[in-house]
Amino acid sequence: MKICYSIFTTYEQEMIKIRNRSAFLLLLPGVLAILLFLFFPVIQIALPTFAGHFGLSNYITFLQSHYNQGVLIRTLIIAFITMIITLTLGLPLSVWIARQRSTVRNLLSVVILFPILTNAVVRNFTWIIILGKNGVLNTLLLKLNFIDQPLTLLYSDMAIVIGSVYLFLPIMVTSLVSSVQELNVEVEEAAAILGSRPLVTFFKVMIPQLTTGILTGCILVFAGAMTAYTTPQLLGGNRHLVMSTLIYQQAMTLGDWSSASVVAIILIILTVLVLGMMRLVAKQLDRRSVND
Amino acid sequence: MAELEIKNLNMSYDKHLEILKSLNLHVKNGELISILGPSGCGKTTTLRIIAGLLRQTDGQVLIDGKDVSKLPVHKRNFGMVFQSYALFPHLNVFDNVAFGLRQRKEKVSIIQKRVNDILIATGLKKLEKRFPDALSGGQQQRVSLARALVVNPKLLLLDEPLSNLDAKLRVSMREEIRRLQQLMHTTTVFVTHDQEECFAISDRVAVMNQGVIEQFDTPQKIYRAPKTVFVARFIGYENFLSVTKKISSTSFYVKNVKLDINSTVDGVTSLSIRPNQIVLGSTAKTNIVSGEIQSSVFLGNAYRYTVSTCIGNLKVDYLGSKRLSNGQNVQLELPAAALLGLKK
Amino acid sequence: MIKTNNKVLITISCVVLFFLIAPLFMIVVTAFGSGATIDFPIQGFTFKWFANVFAQPDFVSGFEMSFLVAILASALALLVGVPLVYALTHYHIHHQQWFQVLFLSPTFIPEIVIGFALYQAMVILFQLPLLVTLLVGHFLLCLPYVVRLITASMTMLDVHVEEAAWIYGSSRIHAFLTITLPSIRSSIVAAFMLSFINSFNNIPISLFLNGPNLNMLPTSILNYLQNNYDPTVSAVSVLLMLFTAMLMILVEHFIGLNALSKDRS
After folding, report:
1. What angle do CA B45, B47, B49 make, to 5 degrees?
2. DSSP codes, B86-101
3. I want to staple C42 with a disulfide (CB 3.0 to 4.6 A). Which of A282, B219, C33, C215 is the partner?
4. Looking at residue C11, what is its pLDDT?
């Protein structure tokens, strides 16, 4: 018995070795590519930024500037407002789409998917046409005599928010639609039979069940809006910089590559924080439902 | 606690697809009735219309004589237990049960007391802090039942509530449902496709087929005296003989065999008998037919023979210690007391 | 219970859908305006802006370059991504979750930072050609799409099917090529399409990585837009939308559009 057993284990060990070797070979190109093309370049720009006091003096200098503070806060506020608006607009639309008959639902999914796959320049350009000084909106308002001279709509924080909402709404909707589709309609029917009005059912029964989908959508939108370049570049102009346009300006316009690196590292840290927070909260939510 | 009356209920999704055909049903105060039928017969549709989850094409649903057809679901004050239990996954057992009372804006102390009482009555007190996905199927169904009953509904609607449970649990749950229903004296409509289940707990049973209630009677009457071919077939009658000629209301020809029956209904088109009620090797003079054994199957409590006769193949259950061989000729008696006359 | 015939819900949904669709329609209309700048509603009708699109060398070469880079980057991402997903889903690997995070890590780094960092490391430090660096950047963009989509379909595969192939004498590689790969065909196509379109549309990564002879279409449009405000941009936008629509029709025809929305992080 003992001999048999040992033969068996050597065979097993041999198999494990073979499997390990092939797994190693299959993973190698991917791991190397990530380390070499992503981690190395990021570390390479990160290292020189750490100098002086605890290595943080560059960051302290950056954050002491009121101008930079403004950019950082603008970035966060725009991302936050975009997230709130996409959620508010996206929730009802998602419920509506998710509950349609499958033919209608598929058609609407195409309508939602099309903007996602369309170039961001195109989708921002349309808002230049609408919000510009001689744009559609101003022309309309002038004709209706609501205003006597064109409003400055373009090149403002508001324009960036509108553009970002337009850009990220479809992403929020796709994330929510799949969550709504997973809901058991009978749960809402049960609520209705127990005396709950549709609006109460929406807030007290549906939304609590959608937390994971809502969270996923919110984080995707927040992280996306926070790091987007095209929208603030086209709709914000030179005076309404956010972190990503600041990187480009520092590096390409001012030639200050080390400042650009500092901004880049801060943006990475913010993104990792936001995405990490999502995983944490999602895990927390998963745990809550299985406790006893 | 209320009386339910359904008058001329019609439901069709489009002109060609009629789900319900002028349905009538009257349920007395405190009664538990079942709607029994195969899937697709319209029983769940009926229940959903009563609940207000579906709007009927035509007809009325009356509660204590008042038409509630226009009343939205959340104002009807019913209780419902779903096949999928439909518990609120984000609320624990206590909050699930308390949901209906909170919608009614009851005082916190009253909610506390009534939820407590029902949790004790259903044996859920120890689980009150648990969330639904940490409960077994039986426990979830109990919560669902408690949640429906705690609001003192005018009407309790049960939509195949036991079909997701295993056999043993099903028996104890149905007794639980009956006990609570009797305790609270709640008028109840129970939808199921399982005859044993509904016979066990119902005061009356409505057997439904293709949007029509074929028979509405006590379980005993349905079982012993089905009136239509469909009902008889659904509750386990096997041998169906088409009437060739009617002699009197209790006497018929099937092919050239004369068969008498004891009790009858209007417009008999078929006769039927259970396999275990046919007497094999009888010496009686009437209601007799002879035949040849084709095949046999051992059922445990008896052998089931397929006997070919001049009026068609008959299934006969016969408990003899020895198995009769195929090809043997036998005399079969279809006793008048056991033979049923059925409408189409 | 919320029904789709709820009036409030219909109203909100229609307004939001209008907000999503109307702006794109407006671009289409402005592309045919004959005025020298963009008007809405348009004054006259002309096709000249479409002709002008093809008269812009940056647009034409940009399209070629974007197309080429998108195809190569997507192919590269599949070539690297499919084997690693196979390893992650079919072998017992220690710290498998960490590998998963590692391969999705490009999504944790803002795209503009990827471009910025690659420019400094690859172009300035290692003196690599711009085109290679650009390809690397777009490869990093595509890899997470491949990893997510292929993982989703590989985990749903019945491992026994492949084992059955081994038992009937098929070698591992042969079994992978003839059994496993064909059964995840639709998600491979979906991953390729999603990678392709995202690479094709991407701006932030290419931003630092363009040079005198290296123009990507979106960045060319961006540059054009900063100096001009005429319907040429509308026209090129219409062409891009047609391009997107064509891709969607292709995807719908071969694997169904639903395959694209299976991409969940």
Report:
1. 70
2. ---TTS-HHHHHHHHH
3. C33
4. 93
**Which residue among A193, A205, A290 sits closest to B134, beta carbon to beta carbon?**
A290
Q: What is the pLDDT of residues C161-204, one digit of tens each?
A: 877 888 887 787 888 888 888 888 889 999 999 999 999 999 99
Distance CA C163, CA C168 (A): 9
Q: Is B154 on the interface with A (CB under 8 A)?
A: no
Tell me how far apart the terminal alpha carbons of chain B are, to the nearest angstrom. Answer: 36
Task: Give the pLDDT confidence score for residue C253 in this predicted structure.
Answer: 86
Cβ pair C49, C237 in contact under 8 A: no
Question: Are B55 and B94 in the same domain?
Answer: yes
What does the pLDDT look like over A270-292, one tens digit per residue?
999 988 887 787 777 765 554 43
Inter-chain residue contact B73 with A193, CB threshold 8 Å: yes
- Whole-number percent of chain A with pLDDT over 90: 61
* Residues B208 and B195 sit within 8 Å (Cβ to Cβ): no
Spatial neighbors of B142 by CB under 8 A, at least 6 apart, are B122, B123, B124, B173, B176
Q: A229: number of CA atoms within 13 Å, CB side? A: 27
d(CA B148, CA B76): 13
Q: Which of B228, B218, B237 is nearest to B334 (CA)?
A: B237
Residue B242, domain CATH:
2.40.50.140
Annotate A106-142 with three-state secondary structure. Answer: HHHHHHHHHHHHCCHHHHHHHHHHHHCCCCHHHHHHH
CA-CA distance, B323 to B94, in Å (whole number)? 60
Tens-place pLDDT, residues A176-218: 999 999 999 999 999 999 999 988 999 999 999 998 889 989 9
Q: How far is CA B245 from CA A236, B248, C138, in A?
A: 93, 9, 86
**Do residue B211 and residue B310 come from a single domain?**
no
| End position of a domain, from candidates B224, B259, B277 | B224
Contact C80 A30 (CB under 8 A): yes
Chain centroid offset of residue C157 CA: 26
Cβ atoms of C142 and C74 closer than 8 Å: yes
For residue range B134-189, list pLDDT tens digits in order.
999 889 999 999 999 999 999 999 999 888 888 888 888 899 899 999 988 999 99
Number of domain units in chain B: 2
Q: Which residues of C192-222 are buried (b: 16+ CB within 10 A; e: fewer)?
A: bbbbbbbbbbbbbbbbbbbeeebbbbbbbbb
Is residue A93 over pLDDT 90? yes
Q: What integer pLDDT is reported at residue B167 of this predicted model? A: 84
Chain B partners of A205 at a C-beta cutoff of 8 Å?
88
- C-alpha to C-alpha distances, C177 to B172, C170, C172, C183, nearest whole angstrom: 54, 10, 9, 10
Q: Which residue has the higher pLDDT, C129 or C265?
A: C129
Q: What CATH code would you report for C50-263?
A: 1.10.3720.10
Assess whether B100 and B75 both reside in one domain. Answer: yes
Query: What are the backbone dihedrals phi and psi of residue B225, each rounded to the nearest 5 degrees, phi first?
Result: -135, 65
pLDDT above 90: percentage of residues in chain C? 56
How many Å apart are CA A31 and CA A290, to the nearest integer? Answer: 36
Domain that holds residue B292: 237-342
Give the start-to-end residue ranges of the domains of chain C: 50-263
N- to C-terminal Cα distance for chain A?
46
Using one digit for the tens of pLDDT, what is the confidence trace for C27-47?
999 999 888 888 777 888 888
The domain made up of A52-291 is a member of CATH 1.10.3720.10: yes
- CB atoms B79 and A194 under 8 Å: yes
Chains that touch B (3 or more CB pairs under 8 A): A
**Which chain A residues contact residue B149 at CB under 8 A?**
none
Mean pLDDT of B49-56: 91
| Pairwise CB contact (< 8 Å): C1 & A33 | no
Has residue A7 got a pLDDT over 60?
A: no
Mean pLDDT (chain C) is 89
